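User: ATP-binding cassette domain-containing protein. Structure?
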Amino acid sequence: MAGTPVLAMSGISKRFGAVQALSDVSLEVNTGEVVALVGDNGAGKSTLIKVIAGVNPADNGEVRWEGRPVRIDKPSDATGLGIATVYQDLALCDNLDVVANLFLGRELTRVGVLDEIAMERRSRELLTSLSVRLPSVRVPAAGLSGGQRQSVAIARSLLGEPKVVLLDEPTAALGVAQTAEVLDLIERLRGRGLGVLLISHQLADVRAVADRVVVLRLGRNAGVFDPDRTSQEEIVQAITGALDNAVTRRRARVEEGTATAPRSPDEDQPA
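Assistant: Predicted structure:
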């Protein structure tokens, strides 16, 4: 399986009535890799995430998991493959403590009774392995900072031992210190060999942790970039369509005989 993406999607299309949300979209995520999915509002990022998570199955296209074709028609299909999703709202219960939130819906029991000792021990082990620092695993979620809440939500997604984790705007509305905590946690997920698909509007965060940046624009692929070898301006141009416009203008000048032939956006990327 060396070199085979853990998740590969091609020709993904999704329509909602008269609205074509996705058109022929392709995406790959490898093990131990952070792939950032970026784009303007309405670019199709959330729709693609819901397709992967099985919330809104694709109308057309192929999905391959570890090289074999699969169908993701419902959330349980995604979970069964090893895909975990952490949505922006986190879905934490403020009145429950960290342990109860981590095991919500998958509580451990012993002789028909909740095994609080086992769940607390497993919670401490998981949070320690991720270097997540909390005042206590018995503090209610309402008493945690934004960064700590995000860390708990991400940790909860790992209880099912997934291979790919989808993170929807994990640093939105966080302060500088809390954002740094979450970005450190994302790097630790990569260090555990997980594939991470990061959806974010924060290009500084994307450039800090992503191995590749996939741009969507108007429901279509608009480029794949290496953040270490691509300027933020180029990524913004792909998001807004300015990169395509620049190529079109250059081609027009070529036809007029006032410029040399343009390269395609892919050719503009460093080898």
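Residues 7-232 form a domain with the Rossmann fold fold (CATH 3.40.50.300). The chain has a mean pLDDT of 89.
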